[in-house]
Amino acid sequence: MKVGVIGAGTMGSGIAQAFAQCEKVDTVYLCDIKQEFADGGKAKVQKSMDKLVSKGKKTQEEADEVMAKFKTGLNDICVDADLIVEAALEVMDIKKECFKNLMENIVKNPDCIYASNTSSLSITEIGAGLPKPVVGMHFFNPAPVMKLIEVIAGANTPDSVVEKVIEISNDLGKTPVKVNEAPGFVVNRILIPLINEGIFVYSEGISDIEGIDSAMKLGANHPMGPLELGDYVGLDIVLAIMDVLYKETGDSKYRACPLLRKMVRAKKLGVKTGIGFYNYADGGKVPTDK
């Protein structure tokens, strides 16, 4: 199977690694809007492979076999892809235009499956007006490690496409969960408002950053507290999903915390920018209210 991954950022490169590690995949096209971005995504995978080798979890030969499957470039290298997984920016117009161009101008395989890794946007809207159906194939970060894939059917997604993506997910060693389209799907419908509520608790002065995170780790047995988790997800992603939930449902319980919006405007997005609720300078992790 030949797989095209559109978007070579953190999620895209992780998804590409997950496919490259699958025996049934012989080629992974890792694409972005610039060659250097695509090459940067491949470099992330190489770094991950080197780490697995150093820890004895893969042999050098196995790592080399994974990396040999990669071809990087712009989207036009996906001519003979059997599956496209779009992991571009979480912006509806960008996703729609990406799929339109792939379907109409690039991919020649009539049986190619088109999947989006969107974390909250409507699969039905992404696929509206396109010549081929779109299905949701939502990985979780880090994609090579996390077992879950949400498989989302839009209003016009054939059952056969959904079942094929479930089969592919199983081939990757993942656990697929079939989801009927709804804002935020399953995980983010529950998880992102939890993070948002943690930010409200902090903004109201109920406890400090460490106190909130420790309370949820020790009191609810969560592996990460909500503020720390928000930093790892990316506070810009948290805000984008909250805004989708609010727009799609009109329910005030999905109102984004003003502090979250303020931090995103300040580019304090968490781990990816080096500062969020914690400061990650020099490889550390210090609460910003200390």
What does this structure look like?
This protein is α/β, with parallel strands linked by helices and 290 residues long. The chain is 46% helix and 15% strand. It is built from eleven helices and ten strands. Strands 3-2-1-4-5-6-7-8 form an eight-stranded mixed beta sheet, sandwiched between helices. A two-stranded antiparallel ribbon has the order 9-10. Strand 4 (83-86), helix 4 (92-106) and strand 5 (113-116) form a beta-alpha-beta unit. Helix 10 packs across helix 11. The longest helix is centred in the first third of the chain and has 20 residues, at 35-54. The radius of gyration is 19 Å and the shape is globular. The model has no long low-confidence stretch (mean pLDDT 97).
Radius of gyration: 19 Å
Unreliable spans = none
What is the end-to-end distance? 51 Å
Shape: globular
The structure class reads alpha/beta
Strand content: 5-15%
Mean pLDDT: 97
- The count of strands amounts to 10
- Give the proportion of residues in helices: 40-55%
Written as H for each helix and E for each strand, in order along the chain, the element string is EHEHHEEHEHEEHEHHHHHEE
Helix-strand blueprint:
Layout: E1 2-6, H1 10-20, E2 27-31, H2 35-54, H3 60-68, E3 70-73, E4 83-86, H4 92-106, E5 113-116, H5 123-127, E6 134-138, E7 148-153, H6 159-171, E8 175-180, H7 187-203, H8 209-219, H9 226-233, H10 235-249, H11 258-265, E9 278-279, E10 286-287
Parallel strand pairs: 1-2, 1-4, 2-3, 4-5, 5-6, 7-8
Antiparallel strand pairs: 6-7, 9-10
Helix pairs in contact: 1-2, 2-3, 7-9, 7-10, 9-10, 10-11
